[in-house]
Amino acid sequence: MxxxxxxxxxxxxxxxxxxxxxxxxxxxxxxMSTFYxxxxxxxxxxxxxxxxxRDDAHxxxxxxxxxxxxxxxxxxxxxxxxxxMALAILSGMSADEFARCVQSDDSAALVRLPGIGxxxxxxxxxxxxxRIDSLGGIATGVAPPAARGGAPALAxxxxxxxxxxxxxLGYKPNEASRMVRAVESADLSSEEIIRAALKTAGGGR
Length: 205
Description:
The protein has 3 domains: 4-63, CATH 2.40.50.140; 68-135, 5' to 3' exonuclease, C-terminal subdomain (DNA polymerase, domain 1), CATH 1.10.150; 158-198, Ubiquitin-associated (UBA) domain (Helicase, Ruva Protein, domain 3, Orthogonal Bundle). The chain contains 9 helices and 5 strands, in the order E-E-E-H-E-E-H-H-H-H-H-H-H-H. The chain has helices at 32-35, 66-76, 83-92, 95-103, 107-111, 118-135, 158-168, 173-183, 190-201, and strands spanning 4-13, 16-21, 24-29, 44-53, 58-63.
């Protein structure tokens, strides 16, 4: 199991990045909460990681803190929640916000995240209620975002990059385009567009 990587950031296109670790390039998927805190390309970064092994692929996920990875792993234990949905949850709200949703039975906030229906939201609340407490300090050290297969391709513009990132996080293409159109600006970077789009989708959290 690969649990931690430290290397040079080769490229970043949300939600993907590549780290050069002693000449070996590792491709990772990361939640937007981690992505917002990444340094510029060419700088060194350290990430906690979780490896998901499937029949058709080995996928490495990266996290800016142990608490983020802890929540990701706890979410994977919930019935019906896979890695993609767990990544979308971590991108759509901070661990602190997720904990508050669970503790206050706020399924409506969870339903606003991509791929989560009412039944899944209710199951998350029931199954995560005890696990949130056992994780301890889950909300510390997690950068709060305002807003979650295949080799990534570099996008041409911040707008197209933002749309691609939202689709990768689970939003349908037409929904991702609509979200970006509502907030796009020539002065915004792709990360800023994604942040604003996710904030709007989350009801202004």
